[in-house]
Amino acid sequence: MKSVIPAREAVARMRPYHPPLEGRDGKLRLDFNENTIGCSPLVRQAIRKLTSAAVSMYPEQESVRRELAQFFKVHRDELLLTNGTDEALHLIVDTFVEPDDTVLLVEPTFAMYRFYSERAGARIQALRYDAAMQFPMKALLAALRKSPRIFFLANPNNPTGSVLQTAGLRRILKAATKTLVVVDEAYFEFSGITILPWIRRHNNLVVTRTFSKAAGLAGLRLGCIFAHGSISEHFRKAQSPYPVNVAALVAARATLRDRQFLRSTLSEFRRSRKELERGLAKLGIPFFPSAANFVLLFLGARAKAVVAALARQGTLIRDRSSDFGGAGYVRITFGTLTQTRRVLRQLEEIL
Ligand SMILES: Cc1ncc(COP(=O)(O)O)c(C=O)c1O
């Protein structure tokens, strides 16, 4: 039956987005850049200890926000907690984008920048990484001179794995005099490159972080927005009253208390990255250097068949060909060293 109530024009115009698939539990999930090691045992302990009263109350976040602000070395006013980065992006767009404003992207990149912007009725101006996954800095600086409303940048970028150094970010901020620059540092823990402290001196910079990747809390949905007080006050006004659930709040606190978990996760990923890169080189599969917890490789015409054959063996990787005009690119998340060896063995058999 057809709906008699038309959706907003912007929604009707949107390309449908195909959200992550169901049925991934129990498989080797190297397809969505999650942390396959899991989360800190302190997180599970903290969730187990939640009382019935705590669960039946609307969540109070101030004490956790204070602790997180201290951890990230920002003022409380400069930090908002969100229901994952997804809510952060939604809030940023809702707060700053009017219909027909221009949102600038460099694609391929994280799909949610386009998703929320299109939904708000924005015009998308999309530049492209070149075939060597080089960032189009010159074209970007020229585009920024036309004062788009927002420029979204994932740094490191997903799915290319490439990262801009701080010198490049400085040039961008210098050119973006009338543009809100949103730097999504979802993979910061893997790259070590951040401009979070710059929010103090740039009142057009927003930095986002997530607990979904290195901290392994993707299922709890916890993200952060960092911005100068003059920007974050708008977000605070526009945000829903209870964006972060009580389990995510206690999990965040437990994550901060277990620095050893983060250190061992990162060192396992480094070992995995080396092993995977060595294995891919041995198999003659071209790949792009990555500063994140995944790697983009080129399988050409074999891509679809390889992804399907791995799935039959219980290993999920992500076909990203649609990001590159159908040209056979695949993304693999780094798992543990054992998981990485397993996927390499399977790849070798299949190829
Ligand atoms: C660049 C980037 N930002 C944000 C996210 C999602 O973060 P969250 O789970 O906090 O919504 C992803 C997930 O893949 C990502 O690649």
3D architecture notes:
Helices cover 41% and strands 15% of the residues. The strands form three sheets. The chain has a seven-stranded mixed beta sheet, with helices on both faces. α8 links the parallel β5 and β6. The mean pLDDT is 95. It binds pyridoxal-5'-phosphate (PLP). The site of pyridoxal-5'-phosphate (PLP) has 13 residues, from α5. The site of pyridoxal-5'-phosphate has 13 residues, from α5.
Q: In what range is the share of β-strand residues?
A: 15-25%
Q: What's the overall geometry?
A: globular
Strands in their spatial order, largest beta sheet: 2-8-7-6-5-3-4
Largest sheet: 7 strands, mixed
Overall number of strands: 12
Structural class by sheet pairing and helices:
alpha/beta
Q: What's the gist of this structure?
A:
The protein is α/β, with parallel strands linked by helices. The chain is 41% helix and 15% strand.
